[in-house]
Write a structure and sequence with these properties.
The protein has 402 residues and is an alpha/beta fold. It is 36% helix and 27% strand. The strands form four sheets. Strands 7-6-15-16-17-14-18-21 form an eight-stranded mixed β-sheet.
């Protein structure tokens, strides 16, 4: 007669699943407020500190992190941008977003932010984090005592952590969103009908700011990442294979789509990253299910068209961390309103991303109506100060009281 040994059980107040920016911000806020928590991450520390991701932070997000002591490295090392170019019909059109909005973008690749946040939580504050965990599962999310179980990557043993709340910060393909019971969430998805070939080149940027090339062959973009590395994008057909794009083909097409009178020539270099991204968005509503609260890409995904994804994750994390801390001080207002507060900004950013997508892809759409309306939007943006100011406020990010 065989028997199954019970799982080792530990207890904490909050289990955070996922050590991206959202999960790490929540963990840091809780640790500073002396709220017990455990952070679980499926990948190794080395992997998440090197994983290529977004690099644009809106000023409100940087200031909010700074107020919580989480932006020292960012403020010391990040560059700032306050303008960008549209290039089309062989001409350059600069939009001075900082002058129009009074705000800047901070350029700080996500791996650097993640590295800073891990050091703050795990090294300096000695917060508890378990990397490389396997077979993570959520239990009893509607009860007063939910739990998370996982397999230890070294011993192969199963462990169970009972808690008060679970923060689901493990991204679009993570286990926390999958743990939401069927019928409890409305998932709204939108496909832009295009894909981008995302490229990282060991080559100096030819412009300090972002360049958007609008071309009948497809959209192209250039974004400085460092003095030696440049991010490029090329619009490609959905389902395209990145390996079909040779070094020569990539650079020929970038030269073609980003050409304009008086523009500095692109400096070519080795392409060190090459991946095709289908441009789509989704939103999960609500973002709270019993004692499970989703944040970041686990709750919503916005295509990188307007560089909003990491900023939304930061907004979620700050709201969730503050709400959890307030709960342990006797105030449940923040937790009760968490989903609604997050979704207001989510939908605002989704709408702006859709607007900008229509502008960027109009010339290559093959649809005269879409091309015509995109051109009309450009004329209004470039010809009207009031329209330019309204655009700049959305592009640079609305202020948040965080």
């Amino acid at each position: 007669m065989s028997s199954t040994a019970p799982l080792p059980v530990t207890r904490t107040r909050v289990v955070i699943v996922g050590a991206g920016p959202a999960g790490l911000i929540v963990a840091n806020l809780l640790r500073t407020a002396e709220v017990d928590c455990v952070l679980l991450e499926a990948e190794s520390r080395e992997f998440i500190e090197q994983r290529p991701r977004a690099g644009f932070l809106e000023e409100w997000a940087v200031r909010a992190l700074d107020r919580r002591g989480l932006a020292d490295g960012l403020l010391e090392r990040a560059g700032t941008q306050g303008e960008f170019e549209f290039r089309f019909d062989g001409e350059r059109h600069t939009v001075r977003t900082a002058e129009l909005s009074g705000r800047h973008h901070f350029v700080y690749p996500q791996p650097l932010l993640v590295t800073d946040l891990i050091a703050s939580y795990a090294d300096r504050a000695e917060g508890e984090v378990r990397f490389g965990v396997r077979e993570v599962a959520l239990h009893d999310i509607d009860s007063a005592r939910p739990a998370v179980s996982y397999t230890d990557p070294v011993t192969g043993a199963r462990h169970r952590i009972e808690c008060d709340f679970i923060a689901g910060c493990d991204g679009a393909r993570g286990v926390t969103r999958a743990a939401v019971p069927t019928g409890r969430a409305a998932v709204t998805r939108h496909d832009h009908g295009v894909a981008w070939l995302a490229l990282l080149a060991e080559a100096p940027p030819s412009a300090d700011g972002v360049v958007f090339g609008l071309h009948e062959r497809g959209f192209g973009a250039q974004m400085a990442r460092s003095p030696q590395v440049t991010r490029y994008y090329l619009q490609v057909a959905p389902g395209s294979d990145a390996e079909d794009w040779s070094h020569t083909r990539v650079w020929d097409e970038l030269h073609r789509r980003l050409a304009a009178d008086g523009a500095p020539p692109l400096t070519e270099g080795p392409v060190i990253e090459k991946v095709v991204l289908d441009m789509h968005n989704y939103v999960v509503e609500p973002m709270t299910f019993g004692r499970l609260h989703l944040a970041g890409d686990a709750a919503h995904l916005v295509a990188p068209i307007a560089a909003k994804g990491m900023n939304l994750a930061i907004n979620d994390a700050l709201l969730l961390g503050d709400a959890l801390i307030a709960h342990y001080r006797g105030d449940d207002t923040g937790l009760a309103g968490y989903s609604e507060a997050c979704l207001r900004r989510v939908w605002q950013y989704m709408e702006f991303s859709q607007w900008l997508s229509d502008v960027l892809h109009g010339a290559s759409s093959g649809d005269r109506f879409q091309a015509g309306t995109a051109r009309a939007r450009l004329r209004r943006l470039l010809g009207s100060e009031s329209a330019a100011k309204a655009f700049a406020r959305l592009y640079m990010g609305e202020e948040a009281d965080l």
